[in-house]
Design brief:
By secondary structure, the protein is mainly alpha-helical. It has one domain. It is built from two helices and no strands. Helix 1 packs across helix 2. The relative contact order is 0.16. The mean pLDDT is 82.
């Protein structure tokens, strides 16, 4: 194994993933807060990728809500991350077609 592979796998990849998570989550948090006028409760960044799959029963679907009760619904942080990444993908596509 070459030194470049080790540096890429163990140093650069985690740094890039952390930056992607922070950047995507932050953008998603702002976008969803603006679109919902602050009425939508969003999970905090510490809940991001909270892997409780061992506790999850087989056959149970992924829900975008952390709580299933209608009064205390909190949007899952992974959904917030995806919204942020979709926002930046749309900005990139619009910029690309606008400049061409």
């Amino acid at each position: 194994m070459a030194i470049e592979d080790l540096v890429g796998d163990f140093i650069l990849r985690p740094i890039l993933e952390i930056l992607l998570y922070i950047f995507g989550f932050g953008t998603g948090y702002v976008v969803l807060s603006v679109l919902s006028f602050g009425n939508l409760k969003l999970a905090s960044f510490s809940k991001l990728s909270d892997f409780s799959r061992k506790k999850r029963k087989k056959g149970k679907r992924f829900s975008i809500w952390l709580n299933s009760s209608k009064h205390n619904r909190v949007l899952h942080s992974d959904v917030t991350l995806v919204v942020g990444l979709i926002f930046w993908a749309c900005v990139g596509v619009i910029t690309y077609y606008d400049c061409s």
